[in-house]
Amino acid sequence: MKGGERMKSLFIVLIVILLGFGLTACNNNTLGSYKTAGKTAIETHAATKVQDNYCTENWAVLCDTVTAGKIAVDDAENKAGVDMVVTMTKDKIDKVENKLKQGYYITDDKVASIRLYGDNLFNFSIIYMSFLPKGRYSIDNGKLILNYSDTQELVFEIGNGQLLFIGANIEGSFVEDGPLKVGTIFKISFIEVAANEMVDCSQFAYSITMSWIGNPIVLKHSDENAVFECVVNNGSFSHHDETKNIIIKAGEGFHWRSNEEVKDEQTFIEIVLKIEDSIIGYSVVEIYKNNESNFYRAKLLKAALLPKVDNQYQQVSQEQIQFAIELAKKA
CA-CA distance, 59 to 27, in Å (whole number)? Predict the structure, then answer.
């Protein structure tokens, strides 16, 4: 090869090498900008979340998720990797629990309980107190506030499945004091939703002078495999061998009749809804006498379903349901 041709070949190789470096630098700059945009997308998505809607622990989880996502974006080797990280991080942010779970919260010794339900409603109970506060709750700066009295609010830290009593707002000032020991923990027993349509007792009426059986109390559920286990403390279920315990299929009903023991005590029908061995709901019906008409009537005190969590029935014991039933009788 002649000298001129050799120089020409070397020149071409040099150009190719320089172009390669230039293209690499260009690609790196493009990927770098893409990563910056990805991290901004994560931050923007997180900015749509309101800190007051989260408990302290869960807000920390959300912030850690954002930080981990941005680090993963920096580690991504290409744009497809960036896109995957951004999508996964947004999904993880959305899955951080951002609402207080409604349901029953109970202390380990079962001395005190809090029921959160409906449209920000609550019932608060301590077994040695006759005063049973109830009303609406609120969330302020990530803390649960119960309106305990006209001058006092109880304040709780919200954790994963538990509430921690930290003190009270008394006439506008916070103090580490209240009807409970500061540091008392309430753990969630189960989650429930109101289901008044489950029990129809509106047409029920009974009198010992009746010549006909009357209208039944009807129990309803969409699953044909569901059964209702019913127990009454006074009187009996008529047309079921005069027993105090019966099992009813969804869509069926039962009748009740009195006896002498009804005169002096309140009469309650406790109803537990099951599918196989899983408790999926409960209800309490009170039987009372209308003195004006001399008829016994029925009043629905409580009806609730226990929804699935993560597509699984909640693990709820008979003892937990019985505790909730007893509270419903006092409400």
Answer: 37
